[in-house]
């Protein structure tokens, strides 16, 4: 903002106070009550803790090998959450590095889509854009087998042609794009982020 051509009063912005700077930028962008910034930060913090606390412990039978594979790959897990009752759909993603450590997470709500598959596509699109901007990750994981089928064979899904066209364009930006199925129990963080996002205002 300091280097941009957007005019601002030097007596108001920037200042030595981080809160005052954020407050000013938030007001400039949204022209709303500055307390909304605090509420938004609180909701983001709560979503992060909820996702962290609700990570399920996978059963020890038959899943040990798959869990080790998941934890040792540079991967972005994605999920969408949709119900016919809520006004919003939730989407979420979590990027883990090749040591299995969480590097970034994303969660937000969007206007409710027609179907749950639309939400899954929206989550994938946002995750792909975020990985292109913030990481070298080229592999994505989902618990939705239909999503994988759509990405791999978009012509077979004409009702989603507009959304899939965007996905195909994004795919071309990844030299080695992969999308893989994982059971829901291994996608707990992204699932929790997406579900919690439905309640955001």
UniProtKB/TrEMBL annotation:
Chain ranges of the RNase H type-1 domain: 78-197
Tree of life domain: Eukaryota
Gene3D superfamilies membership: Ribonuclease H-like superfamily/Ribonuclease H
InterPro entries: RNase_H-like_dom_plant, RNaseH-like_sf, RNaseH_domain, RNaseH_sf
Gene Ontology molecular functions: nucleic acid binding; RNA-DNA hybrid ribonuclease activity
The name this protein goes by in its record: RNase H type-1 domain-containing protein
């Amino acid at each position: 903002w300091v280097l941009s051509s957007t005019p601002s009063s030097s007596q108001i912005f920037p200042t030595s106070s981080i809160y005052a700077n954020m407050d000013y930028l938030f007001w400039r962008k949204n022209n709303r009550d500055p307390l909304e910034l605090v509420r938004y930060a609180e909701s983001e913090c709560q979503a992060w803790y909820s996702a962290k606390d609700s990570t399920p412990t996978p059963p020890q039978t038959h899943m040990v090998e798959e869990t080790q594979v998941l934890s040792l790959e540079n991967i972005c897990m994605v999920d969408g959450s949709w119900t016919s009752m809520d006004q919003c759909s939730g989407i979420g993603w979590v990027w883990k590095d090749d040591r299995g450590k969480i590097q970034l997470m994303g969660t937000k709500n969007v206007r409710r889509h027609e179907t749950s598959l639309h939400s899954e596509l929206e989550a994938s699109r946002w995750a792909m854009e975020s990985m292109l901007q913030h990481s070298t990750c080229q592999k994505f994981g989902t618990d939705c087998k239909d999503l994988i089928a759509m990405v791999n064979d978009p012509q077979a899904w004409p009702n989603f042609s507009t959304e899939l066209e965007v996905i195909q364009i994004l795919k071309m930006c990844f030299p080695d794009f992969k999308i893989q199925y994982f059971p829901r129990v291994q996608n707990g963080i992204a699932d929790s982020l997406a579900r919690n996002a439905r309640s955001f205002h």
